Amino acid sequence: MRHYFKQSLQHPNFYLVKLIKKERMPYILFINGGPGLNCGTLEYMIENNYLFNSFNYNIILYDQRNCGRSRKLSDIVLHKDNVFDLQEIILYLTSEYNIQICSLVGHSYGAKLLFDYYKNFSSKIPGVFISTAKSILTPRLNNLMLDLNYLKKNYIDEYNNCLIELKGLNLSKLWGITERLVPLFQTNKDRPFFYWANLESYQKTQDIKKLINLPMNSDIFSCVRKDLYSDSSNFSVEIDKLTIPKLWINGFHDYIMNGHETALCSNSNATTFYQSSHYPHIEENNYFCEVLNEFIIHQ
Description:
alpha/beta
């Protein structure tokens, strides 16, 4: 027997779906990562694989602008568009459907999006940040190191070209190298293992992605990421500076986002999931539900 049943919400531009356990329960709004991804895999896992089975709240998912099942609103998508879209969606849910949102939960790029939402709008809704660093430069540079190591073994000429360019790295060079390497690192079959500690969960998500066939929008991925890295004022994800009730969760094995200085530092406000990498809400789902239930009930 399924613990959640699904109900679509009508919106002129965005795909919005409620996953309901009990009608009178408050909701969390989940903001997926990317950019360019959609909520399809998470939606399928909640419906069919009992994800969030022990969670005490209803859930709302949505596909971001031009992604998945949301409509095309413009040819160019900037990060600020996604931030203002989030505000629009929250107002729409509360005014049109009288939905009580008890927490906003952002994963990866969704955590950055959520952080900038709080910076731009006055909101007292508690925030949960999953798999993020204090600066978006941290994952970008960690990814670059991984890509360079891969080039070193497989594309030596490109690796040598990068070494020359890395003499005095600046933002434009970083973005240029990043864009040029995309097709090469996509051939790296070992890349996904940096993002997953629970290999059973990894395989399950891969199978679901093939089944639902709702691909990532690579144009949005490139466009939004370029916008983010073109301006240093975009870099911050200083969660500690937010005045709203907040919870920050990172996986111990998530080399991309933290490393030991976040995972082990006693001064960090991040809650570490020791059997997870980049997807603690999937890899340790029962523990994730326990932590969120405890966090939300005390707000």
